[in-house]
Amino acid sequence: xxxxxxxxxxxxxxxxxxxxxxxxxxxxxxxxxxxxxxxxxxxxxxxxxxxxxxxxxxxxxxxxxxxxxxxxxxxxxxxxxxxxxxxxxxxxxxxxxxxxxxxxxxxxxxxxxxxxxxxxxxxxxxxxxxxxxxxxxxxxxxxxxxxxxxxxxxxxxxxxxxxxxxxxxxxxxxxxxxxxxxxxxxxxxxxxxxxxxxxxxxx
Length: 203
Prior knowledge:
This protein is an all-alpha fold. It is built from 6 helices and no strands. The longest helix has 47 residues, at 52-98.
């Protein structure tokens, strides 16, 4: 617009120029105005456009950064896991190499089954023995005379023994009264004399 104003001023200062030169100057001015309008419209068009290239580039950069961070964190988190897996594999290999020194689980199950069967058999046998002993004890208790009855029998026997002892003492006393020790000795001596006075048989 400033250039157009300058051209108008020039046109006013040169009223004597001819008509062709005026038309040329006017055409040049219009051309300049048109070019400036095109520049302005181009700038406005560029201003209204979304900068997809820059946005896509920044988004790709951000995605690349996020993927890099995630892969780094994943590597840090996975490294102990991979180390643990390696340790576990080595432990499994060691256990497999030592497996021939251990008893297989099937053999243990078989042995435990046999032991359980024996235990059950022993339990049944011991239960049967206990029942038999209980039956024997019950039978013995039924056949055994209680201590109270024994006490009564013993007391009756003592009474009988005391009565017999009294009778024996009485008989002894009676015998002693009939035959004193002096009479007994004299009788023995007489008997001896009689035996001595008998003639002996000579063959």
